Amino acid sequence: MRAEVKRLWAWMTVFFIAMAFLESAVVVYLRELYYPDGFRFPLAPMDPVLVATEMGRELATLVMLLAPAALVTRSALERFAWFCFGFGVWDIFYYVWLKVLLDWPASLAEPDLLFLLPVPWVGPVWAPCVVSMGLIALAVLLLRGTVERPQAPDRPTWVLLILSATLWIGSFVIEPMRQMASSSSSWTFLDGFFPDHYPWPVALTAALCGGAALVRLAVRDASC
Question: What ranges do the domains of the chain cover?
Fold first, then answer.
């Protein structure tokens, strides 16, 4: 059984790293079209059809992140854990591949357009990387020792995890939503958007909540 578990972790990791390369390849093409001199804010105008296509691609990516977990287990908790692991590996290696292919970002403080669903998400590169490392740690703690009977977090831990996720998302969308409120259309919002600031206190609070949840899980496992 231990060999099968190791094999599962290995192939999951390889799959999500390969997914990250496909994601970064699409971004390489888009930046060649819209940012031939290198990506930077403000955002260049994009055709609404292309924006809609990008949103569809992001939705498809989420399905692809969930599908492997659905194939290997029927447990909702295990599927959640594998999704967290996949998202974390995929997102970190997305930036690894962009660094290899484009030598971007120049630093972890570089602002990036992270997501478009359901509204644009914007933040420095370090922020999604911190989230992704937390997701990987969460998955490992949930699945540690066995992939058959992971122990569910208790209610306070779930509250901390949900609060952390809500605050992280808020840190990414607060500024875009504020600017969208003064824009006549979400499509024209992508034309010329420049992030004024990133609400790092919100991100710090999110990181503290997530870290507390991970500590609770680690302590629980150590006492078992």
Answer: 2-223
